[in-house]
Amino acid sequence: MFCKALFSRVSTFPADLFLRGSFPQYGLVFDAGSSHTSLFIYQWPTDKENNTGVVSQTFSCHVNGPGISSYADNPPQAGASLRKCLDEAMTVIPRERQLETPAYLGATAGMRLLRKKNATASAQVLEAVGKAIQKYPVSFRGARIITGEDEGAYGWITINYLLESFTKYSAKSRDWIHPRSASIRGALDLGGASTQISFVPSGHIADPAEAVHFRLYGFDYAIYTHSYLCYGQNQVLKQAIRILVVRGVLSHLQKIDHPCYPVGYNESIVISDLYDSPCAKHLAPPLLLWNVTLVGTGNATLCRETFRKTFDSSSCSYNGSCGLNGVYQPKVNGKFLAFSAYYYTFYFLNLTKTKPLDTVKVTIQTFCSREWKDVGTHYPREKEEHLKNYCASANYILTLLLDGYGFSADTWGNIAFQMQATNSDIGWTLGYMLNLTNMIPPEAPRQLKGHEEPVWVASVVFIAATLVLCLVLLLLQALR
Fold first, then answer.
1. Distance between CA atoms of 455 and 451, rounded to whole angstroms?
2. What separation in angstroms does the CA of 474 have from each of 2, 344, 447, 467, 479?
3. pTM, whole model, 2 decimals?
4. From 96, 100, 127, 151, the catalytic residue
5. CA angle 277, 197, 223 (to 5 degrees)
6. Directed axis angle between helix 233-250 and helix 300-308, to 10°?
7. Quick check: 24 and 46 in contact, CB under 8 A?
8. CA nearest neighbour of 149 among 414, 356, 391, 428
9. Which family would the database say this protein is a member of (predicted)?
10. Which element (helix H / strand E) includes 417?
């Protein structure tokens, strides 16, 4: 009777325990940036979702085409652009897990700009991408435009979660430990339309509007975070061209030197196109709107001087403690991870490994001085639209970090240019999902690894041994 009852209980055991503990859960997040959209799928063991370090990226997909804000005139196409990546995602997530998979779309600076320019078109684009995602068997949780400050804060969470800076399990003490505060990293994010800086200052944050407070794993954090709309890579390169063009038009020039373009590179532009963004709405375009030709001169020094003119450093109401344009910022503190456009630009220039600032400047200056023909021959696989801008992007990064955020030769070594940690891409999407699914508890985690797992294993061993004994007894009874 005992064995019969045991077999009856065990028949429900795999579905009740094995499946719950063995198969992972999934989460799906679209990062709808200003220049492109990417899809990330994360997974975690069902029975350990409140532990740190168990959520990992299992899939990523780059959506073909521009960012969703580019579809303002054709919103349905924004939704259609997501289908290929969604189709691929359905081959990654097991069918039996799809309906319970939370799916999010977060739009960043490109959509923030579109909302400023045309709120109706912005809403239509979000509706279109939402409808596209809802056609798939996932638990759609909404498509929304996130704030720049949230983007910075979620990036900060992502970095420190992946690096186990908040908490980590110590096998030696069989307990969760809190790493030294020096292990907490700051986040430097550079997108196409905005840039974010987030870090834990060494002292008090003087402006409460720039502070975000978190309680994670039993510890309180007050981080400084600020997002600069219109100071992402693409928007600020256009801003630099406006400065050069205005000066050239005032001198009645139709060929205008561009110090950030390689020597020998020429590009014709329509002046009115430089003023089609909300980032330029406060600027008056030149009265004479003829086409002009930009002529590359490859001068890194003049290039950086041009980018300095995009900043307004004339006023600071916080005793000199300011970032860009008089915005309050405490002195940079601790180590930082710089990702997104920071990483891609410095990866191209072979500068992602920590090097002295003087070496970085010389490398950038040397590249900028190369002839366009030589650059094109040396990098035949690079798209021209990217290749022409590496000198400009590198000099903007230097200007932003040194003149904007206040890094120096002494603190330059605290910046690591990195795009992945523990095989997951660095960005805001993981932190966003962790926050919305409440997977980072405010209090310290229980000692799950030191107790629950051995008990579970012992239970399985006991049941298996008992089953073997029952089979032996049944076999002996049958042979009698």
1. 6
2. 11, 67, 41, 10, 9
3. 0.86
4. 151
5. 135
6. 100
7. yes
8. 428
9. Belongs to the GDA1/CD39 NTPase family.
10. strand 415-417
Cα-to-chain-centroid distance, residue 130: 21
> CB under 8 Å to 39, separation ≥6 — which residues?
28, 29, 30, 31, 59, 60, 61, 63, 82, 85, 86, 89
Sheet holding 415-417, edge to edge: 211-216, 219-229, 194-199, 186-190, 336-340, 415-417
Q: What is the b/e burial string over 173-201, where b = at least 16 CB atoms within 10 angstroms of the residue's CB?
A: eeebeeeeeeebbbbbbbbbbbbbbbbbb
Specify burial of residue 435 (Cβ count, 10 A radius: 0-12, 13-18, 19+). Answer: middle
Which range in 210-219, 271-280, 369-378 is most confidently predicted, on average pLDDT? 369-378
Per-residue pLDDT, averaged over 289-306, amounts to 93
CA distance 105 to 111: 12
Q: Residue 440 has which token pair?
A: 């980072």
How far apart are the C-alpha atoms of 307 and 290, rounded to whole Å?
Answer: 24
Task: Indicate the DSSP class of residue 403.
Answer: I
Please answer whether residues 195 and 158 qualify as being in contact, where contact means their C-beta atoms are separated by less than 8 angstroms: no
Structure token pair of residue 260: 């950030």
How confident is the model over 270-291, as pLDDT tens digits?
A: 988 899 899 998 887 776 667 8
Name the DSSP class of 410. T
Element (H, E) at 219: strand 219-229
Q: Is 260 helix (H, G, I), strand (E, B) or coil?
A: coil
Contact (Cβ atoms closer than 8 angstroms) between residue 106 and residue 31: yes
Identify whether the C-beta of residue 3 lies closer than 8 Å to the C-beta of residue 470.
Answer: yes
The token pair that represents 151 in the structure block: 């983007």
Structure tokens at 167: 């908490």
305 is catalytic: no
Q: Any idea what the Cα angle at residue 61 is, between residues 63 and 89, rounded to 5°? A: 110
Annotated binding site: 192-196
